[in-house]
Amino acid sequence: MKKAAELLAVFLGRPEARRACRVVDLYQAWPEVVGAELAGHARPLGHREGTLRLGVDDPVVMQEMTFAVPELLARVNAWLGQNAFDKIQFDLIGGRVSLDAPQEARPIFHVPQAVRPANLGGLLGKLDPATPVGRCYEKYVRFFQAPARRAGRRKKATNTDLEAKRI
């Protein structure tokens, strides 16, 4: 059995993997590659096969950038050291984030914990378990019982457990 490091080395040694890493470097160095003026108007959005996808903010800028395609392709391919791209597709960037944008720290979301009602289970036995409301209430009661059971590693709540609570 091969180690993960050996498999990773084989994968990263492939030409397509090296090319993909180089394209990621291109996105990160975008202003240096195409120049500050062009980088201010066109941001990298991605690529597919031989087409580089760039985002622009304005339709007029998109039209103007079509005249800069030969210069952009020459700079990008020279930086990559190969003719990786032969076309450029422009899209309105809209709300999308370009690939050369600095990575922001993602906020950490805390899942709020449900507060167990004091009178939980008070309606067991009063609601018909054959009705949708009765079944829903039983599941609601089990929802609050589940964390306690997991902590004690007890078995999952069954209908007989709920029947015993009704009495």
From TrEMBL:
InterPro entries: DciA-like. Pfam families: DciA. PANTHER family: UPF0232 PROTEIN SCO3875. This is DUF721 domain-containing protein. It comes from Desulfolutivibrio sulfodismutans. The lineage of its organism: Bacteria, Pseudomonadati, Thermodesulfobacteriota, Desulfovibrionia, Desulfovibrionales.
